[in-house]
Design a protein that fits this description.
- The protein is α+β, with helices and mostly antiparallel strands.
- It has 13 helices and four strands.
- It has helices at 3-25, 28-36, 43-51, 56-68, 75-83, 88-100, 107-115, 120-128, 169-185, 190-195, 198-205, 231-293, 298-330; strands spanning 131-134, 138-141, 146-158, 215-230.
- The N and C termini lie far apart (150 Å).
Length: 331
C-alpha cells in the first residue's frame, strides 16, 4: 500500500483511540451539562475526581440541582461528603426542602445527620409534616385491682438540632408507655380512667418525655381504652390457694409427726412387754430356788398355782364377756 495513504489512516486511528480514551476517562458530556446549567467547573476538576476515585455524576448532578435552587454549595463540600460515605443527592434534596420550608439547615449539619445514619430528607419532611406514632396496647393496674389497657397515638415532629445524638422512636414509645402505666396505677379506680381518658394524655404530656430525643412531642391522644382482667381478685385467689397449700402441708406434717409418735409408743410398749416376758421368765427359776433352799413349802407352791389358775380363769371370762358385748353392738 502506498505510504501516502497509510499515514493518514494511522493518524485517523490514533485520533479515534485518543478521543475514545478521552471520553471514557473524562466525563465531557457531564462537563458540558454543567456549563449549560451555569455551573462553572473545569475539566481538570473532573479528571481529578476520576483520579480520587469519585464518581463525577454523583457530585456534579447534585451540584447542578443546588445551583438551580439558588444555594451556595461548593464542589469540595459535596466531594468530601461523598468520600466520607455519605449520600450527596439526599443531603442536597434535604437542603432544598428545608429552604422551601424556611427551615434553617446548614450543609454541615445536614451532612452530619446523614453520616450519623439518619435520613436527613425524611427528618426535614417530618419537621414540615408531623408523624403519628401508634403504640401497642399498654396495660396498667388501677388501685382497685382492675387491669386497664390503653392505646395511644403520639404526634411528633423532628427536631433538627437534636437529630445527631438524640434518641429515636423506640425511646418515645417506651417513655409514653411508662407514663401511661404510672398514670393508670395512680388512679383510685378504673372507672376514673374510663370516665376521663384524656387525664392520661395530659399527665404524660406534662412530663417532658421528648427530652434528649430527636423529636418534639406535639400531642398524645388516647385512641382506645379497654378493661382487662381483675388482677386484684386473681392475686387474692392465688394467695388463698397458697395459704391453703401451706395449711395442708403443715397439717400433713403434724399428722406425720403423730403417726411417728404413735409408732414410737407402740415400739416402747413392745419393749416393755419384752421386759415383762423377760421378768416372768425369771419367776420359775426363783420358785425353784425358793423350793430348793426351803424358803417356800409345797403348800405355798400349790396355793400359788391355784391363784395363777384362778387369775387365768377370770381373764378368760372377762375376754368372753367383752366379745359378747361387741357382737351385740354389731347386731
Amino acid at each position: 500500500m502506498d505510504q501516502n495513504i497509510l499515514m493518514p489512516l494511522i493518524i485517523i486511528a490514533v485520533i479515534v483511540i485518543a478521543l475514545a480514551i478521552l471520553f471514557t476517562f473524562v466525563p465531557v458530556a457531564l462537563w458540558i451539562s454543567a456549563l449549560a446549567a451555569g455551573v462553572k467547573i473545569s475539566i481538570f476538576t473532573l479528571i481529578g475526581m476520576r483520579l480520587r476515585r469519585v464518581v463525577p455524576n454523583r457530585v456534579i448532578n447534585p451540584l447542578i440541582k443546588a445551583h438551580k435552587a439558588g444555594m451556595n454549595v461548593k464542589t469540595n463540600q459535596l466531594e468530601s461528603h461523598y468520600l466520607a460515605g455519605g449520600n450527596v443527592d439526599r443531603v442536597v434534596n434535604a437542603l432544598i426542602a428545608a429552604q422551601r420550608a424556611n427551615i434553617d439547615l446548614l450543609f454541615e449539619r445536614a451532612a452530619a445527620i446523614d453520616l450519623a445514619g439518619r435520613d436527613v430528607l425524611e427528618a426535614v419532611q417530618m419537621s414540615v409534616n408531623p408523624k403519628v406514632i401508634e403504640t401497642p396496647f399498654i396495660a396498667g393496674i388501677a388501685m382497685d385491682g382492675i387491669e386497664v389497657k390503653a392505646l395511644a397515638r403520639i404526634t411528633v415532629r423532628a427536631n433538627i438540632d437534636r437529630l445527631v445524638g438524640g434518641a429515636g422512636e423506640e425511646t418515645i414509645i417506651a417513655r409514653v408507655g411508662e407514663g401511661v402505666v404510672s398514670t393508670i396505677g395512680s388512679s383510685n379506680a378504673h372507672t376514673e380512667v374510663l370516665e376521663n381518658p384524656d387525664m392520661i394524655s395530659q399527665t404524660v404530656l406534662s412530663k417532658g418525655l421528648d427530652s434528649g430525643t430527636a423529636f418534639e412531642i406535639l400531642s398524645i391522644d388516647i385512641a382506645d381504652v379497654d378493661i382487662g382482667k381483675n388482677i386484684g381478685a386473681i392475686l387474692q385467689t392465688d394467695q388463698a390457694e397458697a395459704d391453703k397449700n401451706i395449711a395442708q402441708a403443715k397439717a400433713e406434717e403434724r399428722r406425720a409427726m403423730a403417726v411417728a409418735q404413735e409408732q414410737e409408743m407402740l415400739a416402747r410398749v413392745q419393749e416393755m412387754r419384752a421386759k415383762v416376758v423377760e421378768a416372768e421368765a425369771d419367776v420359775p427359776q426363783a420358785l425353784a430356788e425358793a423350793l430348793r433352799s426351803g424358803k417356800m413349802g409345797v403348800m405355798d407352791y400349790m396355793n400359788y398355782q391355784n391363784i395363777d389358775a384362778d387369775t387365768d380363769m377370770r381373764d378368760s371370762i372377762g375376754k368372753l364377756s367383752n366379745d359378747n358385748k361387741d357382737d351385740d353392738q354389731n347386731k
